[in-house]
Structure formats: C-alpha cells, structure tokens
Amino acid sequence: MGYEVDFLGVGDESKSGDAIAIRFGNLHGSRQEQTVVVIDGGFKDTGTALVEHIKNHFGTHEVDIVINTHPDQDHINGLEIVLNELDVKELWIHKPWEHNQGLAEKFKDGRVSDNSIGERLKQNLERAWSLVKLAEAKGIIVREPFTGQLDASGTLKILGPSTEYYESLIPDFEGMPEQASLADVMEGFFDKAATAIRRFFSTWGEDQIDDDGKTSAKNNSSAITQLIVDGRRLLFTGDAGIEALEHAADQIDLCLSGAELRFMQIPHHGSRRNIGKTVLNRLIGYPVSQGEIRGITAIASTAKASEPKHPRKAVLNAFTHRGVKAIATRGSGICHHYEAPGREGWSSLEAEPYHFDYEDEEA
C-alpha cells in the first residue's frame, strides 16, 4: 500500500487556494487496486489543471471521491470542471441549507423563518448549492462530511466537524441576518487593513504563535480528513482554525489504529490565526532539539506572491522546530509520496529553513 498526495500550484499572484489530488492503494498495480480522491479544486481555472493532472499522473478519468472542505471560492470554484470532465462517483460536501431547523430563533430579526434562512444559505453559498445540483443531475452520490464518515475501504475518515458543531457555526456564516461574530469581523479587518511590516527575531523552540487566534465560522466548518495507509496517518485540514483542530485532535486521541502522523496540511495556507502551540503539541508533539526530525512532512498551499500573509514565517517555524519538514508551494506543484512509482522530471524538495530573522506583518 502506498500513496501520492499532489498539491497543485494555486494562485499565480497573491490569492492562495487549495487543490489536492490523492491516490492510494497498490500504486504499482491496476486502477482497480487504487482509490483516487480530490480535496478541493482551487479557483475556476485550477479545475482544468486538476483534471489534466489526474489523467496524466494517475492515468485515469475516474475519481472515487471529491471532497469540498468548505465553500470559499479558492476551494470550491474549480470543482464544477472536475465533476463535468471526470467520472466522479461521490461528492462529499456540506449542505447548510438543510440544517436550518430552529435557526430563525437565533436571530434578532423576528421576520425571518427557518425556510427563509434556508433560502438565504442557498443564495449566499450559491457555488455549493449549484455543485450539489450538478452532482445530483449526474447521478453522483452526495454525502455530507461529518465526523466518523468513512470511505468504502475504511481508509479515509472525516475527523470533523461533527453535525452539532457544524450547526452551531451556521448562524455566524457571512451574510446571515444577525451581525457577524467578532471572529468574522476581525478576520475581515485584518485581511483588508494596511498593516505595518517589522522585523522579528526568533529563538529555536520559541513559538511566536499563540492559542488566541480566531478564524471565521465558515473556515472552522472545514471538513478535516484523515487517511491511514500502512500505519501512516495523513491529515488534511482545509481552512480549519484552532477550535476545529482541537475537536479533530480529540478524534485522533480515540483512534486505536496506532498510526503515526507522517503528513499534515498546514491549515489556511499558513495563516497565523488558524494554528496554536497547544494544538500543535497535541497533533505533532513538543519542540525538539535543533537538528532532530520526526519524519513528518507539512505543506502549506500558497500563491506565488502571497507572502508575508501566506505563509507566516512564525507558523513555518512552529512546525520546523517540532522536527517537521515544512514546505510552502508558492504557486508550484508538490508531490508527497510513499511506496509510489517515480515521476520523470520531479525532484526532492528541501525543507523550509528555520527563520531566525524575518520580516512579517505586525497584525
């Protein structure tokens, strides 16, 4: 059993996104011995690149499962092309408009009803609604990725969100009647405000991230996916924040497989608001001595010109001094693999160096 995890280069300029193609099973055997999964599709033009990548490198036009972690445009827009141009068997996507029971009472505006909230969610998340309708029209099985959901082989598992946690987040989605939560307001403020750049100095093992980072409700609704192959655990996080990652860590603590973490997607393109030192200690472990490695790879999907926002050097450092090989795509494709055939023209990448001295935004 082996796997290939391909992060496609998303974002020619400054806007980062996610498009991940995965193949696992006997990669030296036939297609019938393998499972092909897509996690997110980046922007619209990423969809075409994703289709060609799967055909050229996986040698198939069939995809067993497409997972949309959450309905932000940098994750969902390319998936329509994937569904139209490849033979997709299952689509895993949340349908918040079906979780509208009792929502009206959570808003200050007494004129809204559960039905009107459901319709508002369809309109606000039109890309997700349209993708579900397209899948249904094509006869693709649609499932919602909630905690505990497994693929047919039991190899792929959703660690979060739970249905209850997801439904608690919906009232704070963008465009809902009540004023957005503080997390949404602050995230929007930091994304748009001009921030000063200053120089930072770091000491090995010293975290320059904290446990107070907040992200939007929609980001925290991201499907967090686990893949276990030959006792190796791979963790895909979407744009999940600290709270959502803590819930996923709870699920890992309950796992009896004995699998060890070997790969982790750095959440939200390396944003400082999505990861904290406590949850990193739970998922990876405490900082190690300089030069010590744990045999774990972590990848942040970032645009070519997205720095210093994505990835944050403090986030990369937090992974690195925990013995992790941290890498950022910076608009290029990266393949992480195990027991997989070689690829002509693809070479190994060096880990991100530890940043003892770097410039970053203050916010």
Automatic annotation (TrEMBL):
<keyword id="KW-0378">Hydrolase</keyword>
<dbReference type="InterPro" id="IPR052159">
    <property type="entry name" value="Competence_DNA_uptake"/>
</dbReference>
<dbReference type="InterPro" id="IPR001279">
    <property type="entry name" value="Metallo-B-lactamas"/>
</dbReference>
<dbReference type="InterPro" id="IPR036866">
    <property type="entry name" value="RibonucZ/Hydroxyglut_hydro"/>
</dbReference>
<protein>
    <submittedName>
        <fullName>Predicted hydrolase (Metallo-beta-lactamase superfamily)</fullName>
    </submittedName>
</protein>
<dbReference type="Pfam" id="PF00753">
    <property type="entry name" value="Lactamase_B"/>
</dbReference>
<feature type="domain" description="Metallo-beta-lactamase">
    <location>
        <begin position="32"/>
        <end position="112"/>
    </location>
</feature>
<dbReference type="GO" id="GO:0016787">
    <property type="term" value="F:hydrolase activity"/>
</dbReference>
